[in-house]
Amino acid sequence: MHTRRSAILAGAAFCAAPMVRAQSDAPFRFALTPVFLDNDAAVISALRTALGEAVGREIELVQRRTYQEITGALLDGSVDAAWTCGYPYLQHRDQLSLLGVPVWRGAPLYQSYLIVAVDDAATSLADLQGGAHAFSDPDSNSGYLVTASDLARIGTTPDGYFSRSIFTYGHRNVVRAVAGGLTRSGSVDGYVWEVLNSVEPGLTARTRVISRSEDLGFPPFVARSDRMDEAGIMACRTALQGLGKADKGREVLRLLFLDAVVPADPALFNGIAARMAALAGG
Questions:
Q1: What is the largest CA-CA distance in the chain?
Q2: For domain 110-216, is the CATH number 3.40.190.10?
């Protein structure tokens, strides 16, 4: 169960089904962030091996603490591709392109959840003023932008609304912060909360979801736009979108509670763009 839970929270997984392969002596560097990642050595090794089989070259899985670090590594060429969030993708939409987007529960969509302790009487964001709040990452859509833009729409900010706010740099850590009483409330990825509710119900049972955002584009796989025609990038894209075509890939998707990885239209992220505009005062 630990390995299964770790795989689910790893936030990226790959298999050896694709036809396109990229032969090169240099490792293909794929970035992950602890916003999703659970640091299980066996899972990391499995991801490296599976993606290596798919693209036909050595894989180096690069872990960074924040989305900002991941984006910086993509833009400066330190990594070749990454699983990121729709928010940093849109922040750099002129420089990043989509390799694919996961499908969860039948659609490439998810929600941001606002959570409190199970015995808290709050029923909405309006009840949380003056309390402490946990965010996951300042560049996370579900773990920051949704709540921050909701506050912007009523003319305030997290610093002005909450007594204090913290960044946990992991959605699971947001749930832990609320469950353990470190903060009164938290903003969390609904996919992560739901998966935790399946594999670690003792943790989520100590929290309660009091609001859910509209459906928004699921965190995508991306690479730098000017590199999309490189053999390694094309092989990675084919690998991701081919997960459902072989037994090994289907098992990876099952572990992640995902249905598939599909091509993504940038318009999928229009809802996140609207929230970015609201945060900016537009």
A1: 58
A2: yes
Q: What is the pLDDT of residues 84-142, one digit of tens each?
A: 999 999 999 999 999 999 999 999 999 999 999 999 999 999 999 999 999 999 999 99
Give dist(CA 212, CA 251) in Å, integer: 29
SS3 261: strand
Going from N- to C-terminal start, the domains of the chain cover 2-108+218-269, 110-216
Q: Which of 58, 60, 53 is nearest to 81 (CA)?
A: 60
| CA nearest neighbour of 120 among 223, 204, 209, 22 | 209
Q: What is the fold, at CATH topology level, of the domain defined by 2-108+218-269?
A: D-Maltodextrin-Binding Protein; domain 2 (3.40.190)
Question: Computed from CA positions of residues 185, 189, 190, 196, in that sequence, does the dihedral angle turn out positive or negative?
Answer: negative
Q: Matching CATH topology for 2-108+218-269 and 110-216?
A: yes
For residue 235, the Cα-to-chain-centroid distance in whole angstroms is 22
pTM of the model: 0.89
Query: Structure tokens of 138?
Result: 């300042």
